[in-house]
Amino acid sequence: MSSSSSGEMVFVEHTKGVNGLPKVILREVRGCSAEVYLYGAQVTSWKNEHGEELLFLSSKAIFKPPKAIRGGIPICFPQFGIQGSLEQHGFARNRHWMVDPDPPPFLTCSPNKAFIDLILKHSEEDAKIWPHRYEFRLRVTLGPGGDLMMTSRIRNTNTDGKPFMFTFSYHTYFAVTDISEVRVEGLETLDYLDYLKNKERFTEQGDAITFEAEVDKAYLSTPTKIAIIDHERKRTYELRKDGLPDAVVWNPWDKKAKAIPDFGDNEYKHMLCVEAACVEKPITLKPGEEWRGRQELSAVPSSYCSGQLDPQKAL
Question: Considering 89, 132, 171, 231, which one is annotated as catalytic?
């Protein structure tokens, strides 16, 4: 628990992380914490009151611009995936953000003390690859109970009268004990685009999503709440979202894991990406318009018994 020289609790600490990159540590009274790098405005750690890490960060993650950090919660903007001349998942995740000197006032009337406001604006360099002016404001909040909240506000500040379009994702890497013992609930019966099959559209048939091979799917028009159940750890992650209609589910499995240089060969067993996203229908903003999207994560003890998953264990 961090405290100042006067003995008072420090809710927000500005410090340096790997390779001297500036980062912010958020702490709450019960002992939970989160770490946010200004590089990419990326949450790289989220721990509960027992100090257990809830996000996956690769042991091979490279904290060196311009490479994005592998794990945590990268932000995909102004695009999710690959299209046009922009790099995969856009540029927000490998830009240096600033602490927002002037956050919108009505955001600050919450009782939470552990939060940071960051801002990213267009640069002349970025304008060459994405010719728009914008302001992207992000607030990362750690609630007293350990919930992690991220609120994004993106405004079109073009002076040429032109609207712009974007897709978006909070590319959240959850830490799981064993991917083969994980199930995701809340996406049953929904349509999805399968990125392993050229974005072909299918309908989910299972009563829950389980994992035994590579998966890369964008579920469409999803509910505001999704549950990720880690049977081995008897823990359930709850993802709640607003302004983000879709949900991406990704695990590279063994072959692709070996092909990713900043990812350990066997690390796919201990992570699962479930992402609040807007991928199917891009968001359009006219000059002066603002979009807002938020994601809230919590981790709760799971009453579900892992024996129900494997008939051998139930015997």
Answer: 171
What is the C-alpha separation between 290 and 292, in angstroms, rounded? 7
Residue 16 inside a domain? The answer is yes
- Provide the domain count of the chain: 1
Q: Is the pLDDT of residue 271 over 60?
A: yes
For the question of residue 89 being annotated catalytic, the response is: no
pLDDT in tens, 84-108: 667 789 999 999 999 998 887 755 5
Exactly one of 35, 275, 280, 296 is catalytic; which is it?
Answer: 275
The span from the CA of 19 to the CA of 39, in Å, is 11
Q: In the annotation, is 270 catalytic?
A: no
Placement of tokens 């994004």 in the chain: 152
Q: Which residue has the tokens 């051998």?
A: 312
- Residue 142 inside a domain? The answer is yes
Lowest-confidence range among 86-90, 114-118, 207-211, 301-305? 301-305
Range of the domain at 111: 12-307
